[in-house]
Prior knowledge:
Helix content: under 10%
Largest sheet: 10 strands, antiparallel, barrel
Number of strands: 11
Strand order of the largest sheet: 1-2-3-4-5-6-7-8-9-11
Radius of gyration: 20 Å
Order of helices and strands: HEEEEEEEEEEE
Structural class: mainly beta
Distance between the termini: 43 Å
Oligomer: single chain
Shape: globular
Amino acid sequence: MRHLLLSTAAASAVAIAAPAHAIDYDYFEARYTVSGDAVDVGDVTGPGFEASRSFDNEWLFARASGDFYAVDQGSEDGTLDLFSIGPGARLPLTAGRNAVDLYGALNYQRVATGNVESGIGVDVGVAMDITDRIEGRLQATRMDNDDVDLDLYEARVAYDVDSDWSVTGSLLTGDAEVSGSDRDPDNLVRLGARFRF
């Protein structure tokens, strides 16, 4: 009986001391688009990154991301580059296990397909801890100026290998019109690795 009480007390102390699991906003992720295509462009592959850093209050964060695609257009190869940077804010709906956040970001966005176009874009999304090791996100991106009309939709998952590293995967699709030409991304599959700091 004594051993049972001691074991129960020790387990309770560990549970109380363990920090609540939370959605992560402090990381650097390197990724690669392994398959997909863009309407009127061709097959799309290429490297990318995303970096995020939260501030002391943990409600605000800053984020930058870029994807640098090589486009197979048959006899002639092209490029399609996307870059964004800007501040964001999160609204925790639940904490601890199975935490859920709503978040949004206001970005400077740059789109390059030979011609370079830039403007202000908005991200909105929901992030959730599906299990202790798996984080999922659904995100929508909107950018609209004189030469770019961009609507992107992304589903992401990150699996924690250990306390510092995760492997990631995402599926990106949407509508994109750049300088009057369709550049719609169609089922871009991205795989990567994330380091948390």
